[in-house]
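Hi there, hope your week has been kind to you so far. Thanks so much in advance, here it is:
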Amino acid sequence: MTQSDRHNRSATPTAAGVDTLITRLRDEGVAKGREAAARIEQDASREAARIKREAEAEAERVLADARQAAAALKTAGEDALRLAMRDTVLELKAVLTREVNEKVHRLITTELKREAFLQQLILEVAGHGRNEAGIAPGEAMEVVLPHELVSIEELRRNPLELREGSLSHFVLAVASEVLGDGVRFTVAEDDASGIRIRLQEKHVEIDLTDEKVAELILAHLQPRFRAIVEGTVK
């Protein structure tokens, strides 16, 4: 056997061992790599799941906040709308009431400036009404006339000098005869339309001026007017 043969025979087991070691190391490395890859994949999956859960929770929170904000906005809008409607209704009622009051005042003021109406009013209140009020004949009575229609100078004139049909002519030529003794006429110092009847001995004044008459009529009308408005404007 030659020396070369002996060398080859001794070298073969060593080479085989090296190959085996390399194979084993390679297999172990591959296995560890696979294990590491598996761990990385598991960690990545857990992290992805955590991120997904947190994202879903955040989305739910944002959605809940949005729903709450929307509900609050809706409630606030409904409250504001109800308040606006209430204010509108109240303003409309106030406007209607004010217009009715103004029209009643204008109507009464216009009527009390009509001389023919005032003549009839004087006869009814100071004439026919004195018996119903228990006023004795001859009892002192003062009828205060509106200065817009009658002046002191006219009351001092002769009835024949005055325009027939005027309030002054009526007062001087007719009223004293119809009403009887104890009745005297004066002129108001303010701008009120209508008349005032003063019973001097009883210290009583019957106010039939435009403001007072309008006040009495409105006191009578307003409850009915409010009922009509309440039934119409809601």
Remarks:
- The longest strand covers residues 194-199.
- Residues 3-112 form the longest helix (110 residues).
- The helical segments are 3-112, 115-132, 152-155, 167-179, 210-232.
